[in-house]
Design a protein that fits this description.
The longest helix is centred in the N-terminal third of the chain and has 27 residues, at 7-33. The termini are far apart. Helices cover 62% and strands 0% of the residues. It has one domain (7-72). It has 74 residues and is mainly α. The protein has helices spanning 7-33, 42-45, 50-54, 63-72.
Length: 74
């Protein structure tokens, strides 16, 4: 039997083509998505001021942190 008359062969050919197309699309998109860390200037990358960078972030006595630990029993 040839692939043209065999439904299983047609399905395999379709899935093979689909897999190769997906792999080619992923390979083509990868270099576009990659960006170097130093590509953005430092003045544009900063989102907070000096006081915000020096502020304490973790506050274990706050209500939501206490609720988290109480709920999850850590």
């Amino acid at each position: 039997m040839t692939d043209a008359t065999n439904p299983e062969g047609q399905r395999r050919g379709f899935l093979r083509t689909l897999g190769l197309g997906t792999a080619a699309a992923a390979a083509a998109a990868s270099p576009v998505l990659a960006q170097r860390a130093d590509a953005v200037p430092a003045r544009d990358a900063r989102k907070e001021n000096e006081a915000g960078r020096l502020a304490a972030r973790y506050q274990p006595d706050s209500a939501h942190v206490q609720a988290f630990y109480r709920t999850n029993r850590y």
